[in-house]
Amino acid sequence: MNFNSLTIKDIARELGLSISTVSKALSDSYEISEKTKKLVNEYAEKHNYSPNPIAKSLKQGHSKSIGIVVSTIDNSFFSQVISGIESVAYAKGYNIMITQTHESYDLEVRNVKHLTYRSVDGILISLSAETQDIEHLKALQRKGLPIVFFDRVSNDLDTHKVIADNYKGAYDGTMQLINSGYKRIAHITSSPNLSISDERLAGYKKALEDSRVPYNEKYTKYCLHGGRDLNEIEAAINDLLTMDNRPDAIFTASDRITTTTLSLLKDLKVKVPQDVALLGFTNAHLAHILNPPLSALVQPGFEIGKAAMEMLISLIESKRPVTEFETKILPTELFIRESSIRPK
Amino acid sequence: MNFNSLTIKDIARELGLSISTVSKALSDSYEISEKTKKLVNEYAEKHNYSPNPIAKSLKQGHSKSIGIVVSTIDNSFFSQVISGIESVAYAKGYNIMITQTHESYDLEVRNVKHLTYRSVDGILISLSAETQDIEHLKALQRKGLPIVFFDRVSNDLDTHKVIADNYKGAYDGTMQLINSGYKRIAHITSSPNLSISDERLAGYKKALEDSRVPYNEKYTKYCLHGGRDLNEIEAAINDLLTMDNRPDAIFTASDRITTTTLSLLKDLKVKVPQDVALLGFTNAHLAHILNPPLSALVQPGFEIGKAAMEMLISLIESKRPVTEFETKILPTELFIRESSIRPK
DNA sequence: ATGAAAGCGCTAACAC
DNA sequence: GTGTTAGCGCTTTCAT
Q1: Which of A48, A73, A109, A266 best probes binding to B when mutated, by most B CB atoms within 10 angstroms?
Q2: Residue A152 approaches strand C within 7 Å at CB
């Protein structure tokens, strides 16, 4: 498995030096003469030596690599977050490893475990839809593992967090529908376990309240699998479309739910926005060329990733245990397009 | 960094046993009495012991984890491939680590290196658009690292490969345009470094040839950054649209290029398919709800991932060095939609 | 300025 | 059936 078969030991033997001298020469220690350093480094260079970081981290206790846990990478929002993370990670000399939970609690536990096993220095995580208990993370934090939450966070763990302004985003989106003349606004959202679901629901409710539109509980539909399960969304839409006083607009609270809803409405020959308007959270870069162009609440994915990684590094590199934590809230952006504009 | 602070040594001390007895008990060795095993395992259980796999792999020489290198995860095709990989990896007890190159050769080298450093047992890779030299992979293979190529492969390395039937896909797609009545079919593709570009270009040419449509070199445009650079695509489209004998259809050869082309044509108020038809490779799950619905050549991403992982495992678990390699070619699927159908 | 030796957590050959 | 010991590749006291 060591695919860089040349070890420090080999070099020592070849050069007639001791292992420790070679090690020190390689790390440019002041104890070693320039001559020896040169000798060693040239030999290493020539024979393409590279240290085995596994052995190194076993000894040193850090690996300059961090782990990312997201529900799925097949989602522009998370891709953008990851790009943001990479941008600061690479600049600071960290490598990253990405894993997905597919909204499964078990996979989340497994991936977190695996990452710590592979000795990451810290973890950046957005919780899975299934996750309710985060003891697996708490235990790690207690042992000193730096963890930063982004997007889907938990109140049960005190640490740095970065989220979009989901409350205000949902408020703005709902307001746009109301201002456009819609009154019976349904809300399709992910699992109630998720912090983002709460925040978005609250923003939606507040917009209704501020507009004196009564909140109708029947208009809120949960998709426990965060949009991964087509049937759930289909059922939600069917419910909404067949109820008395059927909604004239839908406000969707997650990326996949938003685009899938449009797709399903199309299958059902329900015209958007003539029959039902649609506006929702999505970072899909195709939103503007969909039919109809889709009104979208866009989260600053790249910035969220950047901020989260910066916070993680500050935790990792902090000399003393950090006890003061911060929650960073970044603004969303609303793009108003045809799908939520009431036809004259 | 060891966030599972309890070590085998601690257990040994607590239980008044030797380190090796504990180690053996934990791995259920026949040498150890049931009584001791029970004692040790119960203690381990109770105190939440989990072995440090870093130390383990340092010793054992394998880690039951593999690395994936793709150009970008923000692409349904790669997401699907990764899901396919995961499906077999998890079933076989392997963990995976995902990295992206963003089409950069340097990042590719860096990521491959990092993965081997983190001691993966094998690598699954789709080359970056920039990559021309694959010495970094050859050296690793020589040292015994199992590598399987998928999607973007190289002839310079003899190993297992899994690709879509790009030649036939491109042939079918081009034929569809021709059968639909288009004659001046342009081709926008990625970097000529990429195997997929070659294969798709060849299929395109063959379809023209079989239909007695002369091949016009000016109709083929390369985007060196594989669609990541908007300006490149924009320039290509501008060139095509302003030339004498301007094309009446465009056949695009990569996911991002396909959707971006549609988006740019829309910006330019060029009607699809009235002014220019469009058909291309893409696994975007929104293709059918775009405006117009997009004709798409879809690759079997999940199956490609599955096959690649199976091949990688066979390499990893092979008792003797493997010298006979296989290239698996999986069929693409063509979805004919409005964007490539000539209006009456 | 250089080297010997211990140790990171674990496994495995080899005693006892 | 259990323990001793060496060693994976590297860093780091502590000698010399």
Answers
A1: A73
A2: no
Our count of domains for chain B comes to 3
B139 belongs to a structural domain = yes
For chain A, the farthest-separated pair of C-alpha atoms sits apart, in whole angstroms, at 88
- At residue A108, the 3 state secondary structure works out as helix
B48, B74, B263, B339: best to mutate for the A interface, most A CBs within 10 A = B74
Both B75 and B117 in a single domain?
Answer: yes
Domain assignment present for residue A98? The answer is yes
Residues B112 and B98 grouped into a single domain: yes
The gap between A110 CA and D4 C1' (Å) is: 36
Residue B140's alpha-carbon distances to A54, B145, B213, in angstroms, are 17, 6, 45
| pLDDT bucket at A103, cuts 50 / 70 / 90 | very high
A184 and A293 co-located in one domain: yes
Where in chain B does DSSP place strands (E)? Answer: 65-70, 95-100, 123-125, 147-150, 161-164, 185-189, 220-222, 249-252, 277-281, 295-298, 327-330, 333-335
Q: Are residues A198 and A159 in the same domain?
A: no
In a domain, A117, yes or no: yes
Tens-place pLDDT, residues A219-253: 999 999 888 899 999 999 999 999 999 999 999 99
Judged by a CB distance cut-off of 8 A, whether residue A259 touches chain B is: yes
CATH number for the domain harbouring residue B245:
3.40.50.2300
Tell me the shortest Cα–Cα distance from A215 to chain B, in angstroms: 31
| Inter-chain residue contact B286 with A286, CB threshold 8 Å | yes
| Residue with CA nearest to C7's C1' atom | A59
Asked whether the beta carbons of residue A1 and residue B97 sit closer than 8 angstroms, the reply is no
Whole domain around residue A294: which residue ranges? 166-300+334-340
| Number of CB pairs, chain A paired with chain B, less than 8 A apart | 149
Would the Cβ of B20 be found within 7 angstroms of any atom in strand C? yes
Long-range Cβ contact pairs of B212-220 (< 8 A, separation 24 or more): B213/B178, B213/B183, B213/B185, B216/B184, B218/B243, B219/B184, B219/B185, B219/B186, B219/B187, B219/B247, B220/B186, B220/B187, B220/B189
Residues A152 and A110 in one domain: yes
pLDDT (tens digit per residue) in B298-336: 999 999 999 999 999 999 988 778 899 999 999 999 999
Classify residue A56: in a domain, yes or no: no
List b or e across B236-264, with b for residues whose CB sees 16 or more CB atoms inside 10 angstroms: bbeebbeeeeebbbbbbbbbbbbbbbbbb
Asked if residue A66 and residue A13 are part of one domain, the reply reads no
Q: Is the CB of A116 under 7 A from strand C?
A: no
| Amino acid A29 CA to nucleotide D12 C1' distance, rounded Å | 12
Same domain, A236 and A205: yes
CA dihedral B164, B168, B172, B175 (to 10 degrees): 150
Closest CA to A241 of A213, A272, A267, A265: A265
* Pair A296, A309 in one domain: no
